[in-house]
Amino acid sequence: MTQTDLTRLTATEIAGLVAAGETSAVEVTQAHLDRIAAVDDRVNAFLHVDGEGALAAARAVDARRAAGEELGPLAGVPVAVKDVLTTKGVPTTVGSKILQGWRPPYDSTIVRRLREAGTVMLGKTNMDEFAMGSSTEYSAYGPTHNPWDLSRIPGGSGGGSAAALAAYEAPLAIGSDTGGSIRQPGAVTGTVGAKPTYGGTSRYGLVAFSSSLDTPGPCARTVLDAALLHEVIGGHDPRDSTSIPQPVPDVVAAARRGATGDLTGVRLGIVSEFTGEGAEPGVLAAFRESVDTLTKLGAEIVEVSCPNFKYALPAYYLIAPSECSSNLARFDGVRFGLRVGDDGNRSLEEVMSLTREAGFGPEVKRRLMIGTYALSSGYYDAYYGQAQKVRTLISRDFAAAFERVDALISPTTPFVAFPIGARTADPYQMYLADLFTIPTNLYGGPGISVPCGLSDGLPVGLQVMAPTMADDRMYRVAAALESAVGTFTPPAL
Ligand code: GLN
């Protein structure tokens, strides 16, 4: 098999070939490192490539196989990790200047589990600074380019992970989703992105943005690959106090079941608030076609109203900034990364202030100011408190909907990948990218984006939202749709 062929395989196929001895983990890893070397100057999906570490991990897998050891389902498969997760000894910047040069002394739980499963970490992927953004343009290290059209954004904040998949630089990737940062990049790059139930994947070692919303999760080119990765990284972690002490829902079995293309007896709700205003006609057309396809697969479609979803965006933009204004207080120039102006004459406060002034980009500063304001005495009830009440109402909308249907569906994003620079002037235009994904985060349930069609040659994603800890349901529906519409291949780079 040629190197190019190896980079076109799914994770499932790679693991099968490695286990059968038909290729080696080293060979697969080298093929992906070479692909990165060939295309990443144009894509900029990676902030750091750990070639040596990857080859060492691959050699270890090959040695275990040679010794006759049983390998896990993803052993030998390369994976790209969003730069929001700590990696022992490997730079972790969160897309920010403030952490430039920081090498964490420990692995996040997700990364530890990836290593234990024998996956091969290729490196760390580009992202909007502190995961705040929808286009990866707010990275302090330059934007990532969408492999479908290099002049367009790959979504965000996890645009690097999604672009790495679409550019065949990695067959698997990890993202984190606070308001849509796994699903929206998945949608606009024609890849699969799943946000697990909040607490279903560990936040230990995930650099915090908004702790009550942040959810790490799997990204892949197929639903089954995402499910396999989900199973490897998910499950209870005593190091995360919000981790759910229950087994991972059986997402792999659900993906396999879905792939048979039979959705008989499954009731899917269309969120009526999400199919009109605000979405591009091409996106709505692809969505409607998918609804027809799902019907043909046997699903029963009903319309459900979630009247409070229209308040999700404003509520999110109070809750997330509030939490980040507290979380980001730890970046003070004392403990991690950048330290500015410490010339021996300045006070500690001045050094902190200069460090934060130089280290944070404009979007992060905007969020810190909004959050600090929303939490300030006299405004707390009117802003943060009110937003929390809206959050409860949105959860009730979900609960009521799930009394009637097994899962909800919508377009993942209102628009396809937009040109780089098109939405940076007006923050609200950028925030709209997550119109359809944010309610799920406020509720805490799982959501997945699966490619469902093209609009003007650019990918469109369909979102499936399920009740908390029913992640398996969304995999089943997504895999069924995938079995009918297939996967989407970008033009050659
Ligand atoms: N785009 C949203 C924001 O800017 C969501 C980001 C995310 O999920 N990390 O906050």
Describe this structure as you would to a colleague.
The protein is α/β, with parallel strands linked by helices. It has a domain at 3-259: Amidase signature (AS) enzymes, CATH 3.90.1300.10. It is 41% helix and 13% strand. The protein contains 17 helices and eleven strands. The protein has helices spanning 3-8, 11-19, 25-43, 51-66, 109-116, 159-166, 183-189, 223-233, 251-259, 281-296, 312-327, 348-359, 362-375, 381-404, 427-431, 438-443, 471-485; strands spanning 46-49, 78-82, 120-125, 172-177, 192-195, 215-220, 267-271, 300-304, 407-411, 447-455, 458-465. Strands 1-3-2-4-6-5-10-11-9-7-8 form an eleven-stranded mixed β-sheet, with helices on both faces. The chain is globular. The model has no long low-confidence stretch (mean pLDDT 97). The protein binds glutamine.
